Amino acid sequence: MPIPRNRFTLLALLWLAAGIYSLLFREAGGGVPPFPHFDKVAHFALFFAQFWLCAKAFIREKRAIPYRGLLLCALVYALLSEWAQAAFTATRQGSWGDGAADMAGAAAALWLAHRVNAAKNNQLIQ
């Protein structure tokens, strides 16, 4: 299935670049997080935004959202980003908890996209 060409695809690519930069090339600060497990919330939000933008690109084109493909991409991205953090950074570490938060964010975004898409389609039919 070809990738949609619209502003949401561009935004998704820019968000991906920002996410890779923040996870791999920007060293973690030594400050105290605002609350316990703040990093899990950040991972959830990062992946939620990424996969919402991806799904929105398909919604904008009025095409079926490839849920399985996007979830597979989320899994690969989560595994690779956690491995890369563990292997290539000095101030970050790979974590199964972060990977779970990544996948939860992606799943929540795709669930929301499904609900929004279904609501739009029902509204158009009635």
How would you sum up this structure, described in words?
This is VanZ family protein. It comes from Bergeriella denitrificans. The chain crosses the membrane at residues 41-59. Keywords: Membrane, Transmembrane, Transmembrane helix. With 126 residues, the chain is an all-alpha fold. It has a domain at 40-125. It is built from 4 helices and no strands. It has helices at residues 7-25, 38-60, 67-88, 96-125. α1 packs antiparallel against α2 (38-60), α2 packs parallel to α4 and α3 runs antiparallel to α4 (96-125). The two termini are 29 Å apart.
> What's the rounded overall pLDDT mean?
90
Biggest pleated-sheet summary? none
Distance between the termini: 29 Å
Uncertain spans: none
Shape: elongated
Order of helices and strands: HHHH
Helix content: over 70%
Number of helices: 4
- The structural class is mainly alpha
| Content of β-strand | under 5%
How many beta-strand elements? 0
Q: In angstroms, what is the radius of gyration?
A: 16 Å
What can be said about this structure in brief?
The chain is mainly α. It contains 4 helices and no strands. The chain has a domain at 40-125.
Key phrases:
mainly alpha, 126 residues, elongated
Write the layout of secondary structure elements.
Layout: H1 7-25, H2 38-60, H3 67-88, H4 96-125
Helix pairs in contact: 1-2, 2-4, 3-4
Protein name: VanZ family protein
Organism: Bergeriella denitrificans (Neisseria denitrificans)
Transmembrane segments: 41-59
